[in-house]
TrEMBL record:
Gene3D superfamilies: 3.30.300.30, N-terminal domain of ligase-like. One of its GO terms (molecular function) is nucleotide binding. It comes from Desulfomonile tiedjei. PANTHER family: ENZYME, PUTATIVE (JCVI)-RELATED, PHENYLACETATE-COENZYME A LIGASE. Catalyzes the activation of phenylacetic acid (PA) to phenylacetyl-CoA (PA-CoA). One of its GO terms (biological process) is phenylacetate catabolic process. Residues 60-285 form the AMP-dependent synthetase/ligase domain. This is Phenylacetate-coenzyme A ligase. Belongs to the phenylacetyl-CoA ligase family. Keywords: Ligase, Nucleotide-binding, Phosphopantetheine, Phosphoprotein. Pathway: Aromatic compound metabolism; phenylacetate degradation. Its EC number is 6.2.1.30. Pfam families: AMP-binding (PF00501), AMP-binding_C_2 (PF14535).
Length: 431
């Protein structure tokens, strides 16, 4: 077990007073330096002096993705471009990327958050970390790279793809930690199996997977396929990428670096704050950012907060798994559901593989929903029409029981659904 630092086990009062001080500093800094916030605060006729306790944050306006789009490229920046030493971006939905910027201090803070995350996960200087996130504008690879180096581990920046070469390097260099999306972890696991390599023959012990959801059922596939403990980390480009939160080996929530990012959960419809434990939309206020401070940024991610002390001894607030995004929620015949719920149902069957694609189409006025799911090679090799019909009916029955409506299931042969080296696209809403 790695050492727990004092800032990871502050009392709630100590953390709250630190957060309040930094919140007031951030509000005053943003108002002074970012035209967007100056105007927003004027419209809400508020100043940072009005904030004397953390719960008053609920009276502040939100920042939305559309604000970043409208103020592209530098409108949300609090510093002159000459102070910026790094830019990362995610692909926006409207054509223009969503940028995030770092001053030297922001980058150092990012590194501290990533290092803390990886210590929480149990990485030490003896580890060999293979970074198989893509090294592009995407924050994933660079953030993980910074954190692993900061822990004193040896970093192998392979980037994503060239899976055979990844495996060769794992074997030759005795990689102990694989960093990549859950989707790519599945690709590596599949390649190991195909090549007849026993994961136990590798030095791999830990997988750190983020940037997209990983259900418990998918975690199990990855852990078995790679012979690792698979832990999730979370973050988003807008607030600086990964480094926001990380699971510890007790797998009971993601520890939030709440001295850097103040979290709230709101009801996405009423926009009112929800009490601890209730599920809603995660909102973050940056507490230490120089280049691009964000106040009450609506992430669209759905989860809940837990304030009890974790089994690992840390008091940092934790969020639960991201069970979906407000913009990912699907409505079929009036019933709301998240793709992650369907994933858990599909992967709970011992005959299925963790590869599926959900299609939503219109048949006249009615929603027609179907899902293609691969079966494991062991099942496919032995299957006949009867056994595959029986499995299909069992899966359809389970979906109807849990989600309350019918989804047509098509069983697919192994390897027939496209794989991804980054984030997977599994939902095709063609309505
Ligand atoms: O995905 C940052 C990141 C890189 C996080 C590497 C972790 C590891 P974006 O591309 O901006 O940034 O996507 C952010 O991805 O709002 C979530 O919806 C989703 N997401 C990220 N991590 C997780 C996770 C990076 N562990 C968006 N579980 C977020 C579920 C996740 N969803």
């Amino acid at each position: 077990m790695t050492e727990i630092m004092s800032e990871e086990r502050l009392t709630r009062d100590e953390m709250a007073s630190l957060q309040l001080r930094r919140l007031r500093e951030t509000l005053s800094y943003a108002k002074e330096r970012v035209g967007f916030y100056r105007q927003l605060f004027q419209e809400h006729s508020m100043t940072h002096e009005d904030i004397t306790s953390l719960d008053q944050i609920a009276g502040l306006p939100f920042t939305k993705k559309s604000d970043l789009v409208q103020n592209y490229p530098y409108g949300m920046c609090a510093v002159d471009p000459s102070e910026i030493i790094r830019l990362h971006a995610s692909s926006g939905t409207t054509g223009k990327p969503i940028n995030t910027y770092y001053t030297r201090k922001d980058q150092q803070d990012w590194q501290k958050c990533m290092e803390r995350n990886f210590r929480i996960a149990g990485i030490t200087k003896d580890d060999v970390c293979q970074i198989a996130f893509r090294y592009t504008l995407f924050t994933g690879a660079f953030g993980h790279h910074l954190g692993a180096e900061s822990c004193g581990a040896m970093v192998i920046p392979t980037s994503a793809g060239q899976t055979e070469r990844q495996i060769m390097m794992m074997q030759d260099l005795k990689t102990t930690v694989l960093h990549c999306t859950p989707s790519y972890a599945l690709v590596v696991a599949e390649k190991l199996k195909e090549s007849g390599i026993d994961p136990q023959s590798l030095a791999l012990r830990l997988g750190i997977h983020g940037a997209e959801p990983m259900s418990e059922e998918m975690r199990q596939h990855i852990e078995e396929g790679l012979g690792v403990t698979a832990l999730r980390d979370y973050g988003l480009t807008e607030v600086g990428g990964p480094g926001v939160s990380m699971e510890c080996p007790s797998k009971s929530g993601f520890h939030i670096n709440e001295d850097y990012f103040y979290p709230e959960i709101i009801d996405p419809n009423t926009l009112e704050p929800l009490p601890p434990g209730e599920i809603g939309e995660l909102v973050f206020t940056s507490l230490q950012k120089e280049a691009m401070p964000l106040i009450r940024y609506r992430t669209r991610d759905i989860t809940h907060l837990m304030y009890d002390t974790c089994a690992c001894g840390r008091t940092l607030v934790r969020h639960g798994p991201i069970c979906g995004r407000t913009d990912d929620m699907l409505i079929v015949g009036g019933v709301n559901f998240f793709p992650s719920q369907l994933e858990s149902i599909l992967l709970a069957f011992s005959e299925t593989a963790p590869h599926y694609a959900l299609y939503l189409r219109k048949k006249g006025p009615v929603d027609d929903v179907s899902v293609e799911v691969e079966t494991l090679p062991e099942f496919w090799a032995l299957t006949d029409e009867n056994s595959s019909d029986r499995l299909m009916q069992r899966i359809e029955g389970k979906i109807k029981d849990i989600l309350g409506f019918r989804i047509h299931v098509r069983l697919m042969s192994p390897n027939s659904i496209p794989r991804s080296e980054g984030k997977s696209k599994r939902v095709f809403d063609e309505r």
